[in-house]
User: Fold this.
Amino acid sequence: MENPSDRSLVLRTKRGELEAYGDLVRRYQGLVFNVCYRMLGDPHDAEDLTQETFIRVHSHLDSYDCDRPFIPWARRIAVNLCLNYINRNRRYVLPLDDEFERVVSNEQSPERAQEDHERKTSLRQAIGMLPAHYRAVIELRHFQELSYSEISKALKIPISDVKSHLFRARKSLAQRISTDV
Amino acid sequence: MSEDRKAHHDEWSLQEYLDGVLADEDRERLVLHIAQCDDCAAEYTSLKYLYSEMERLPDEPLAHDISARVIHSLRLKEDRKPYMYRVLMAQLAVAIIVFAAIWPRISLELVNRYSLVQLLEPLRKFEDLSAQGILFVREFLNWIHIQWIATLSMPAIDWPITGLPLALAVGGMTLLWLLGNGLLLREPVNGHIHR
Assistant:
């Protein structure tokens, strides 16, 4: 039997069929988890936020336009939830931007950093060290492939801020992974 | 400043070029410049490498299927919603009764003490209504007293505060109680995590 479309699952969920929503969650939990994981860098927190994202998505289904794709909308909700979570939790508070860049540029590369696995880990760690708003723009631009104006709308910040956050975040990431490799 | 020199200093252009949003004219100029400038070529290579690394970053598998937990939380939320709504409404009703009871006294005292006649003028109507309300509540309490409590006795309590401070304290605590419970109840109504 053919898999039901996202649209039909959403419509059934709106009619009160929680089983249909369970199918949607199973279908996209991995994608949403990876958004949260890239944003938070901690798999346990990422799992909790994935769950919270789906609860939030369910409570906002009334405002969701079924003619638009479901998962980009859900992933944007995940980014915003992660941003709020980072801002609420002290352990995610990072150095100020200038200090952050100094820390990044002074780090030495480990010997085994050329291995592929370590390069990925290194990139994940570098993303995890970015200030929250930088992580959000990197996530939306590189992993969700949103345009500058779409990011601006999703995060409710001016396009000029989107550009400057992206610029500084990439510069830091490029420095970090070039020193690690 | 020459065009090449200007491009050399404009690090934004490299990223805009890689994002595919640089205007045609600027793009051509930048490509020419990168071909001639070692610093910009190195910067470009470094950024290009970052872009490709991010593109190739694999997704991590989710350790558990969370759908059952999500559905459980949603069911719990649905089950609690009507109950929580009724609790909030009951609290609101009690708070209104308490304020209706203390309002005539507070308003009179405040008017006398701070000459707030003009400020409170729009609330006169409410005061009349609340006076009627309190009369009803008093009659109701009196009826309860006659029916059930008249036979009981209680030792006299010497309250340390009376009058306006007492009324303000009761009103303030009721308001805090209502707001506090509202905040506590907001969590289960809006949904929360169950591991």
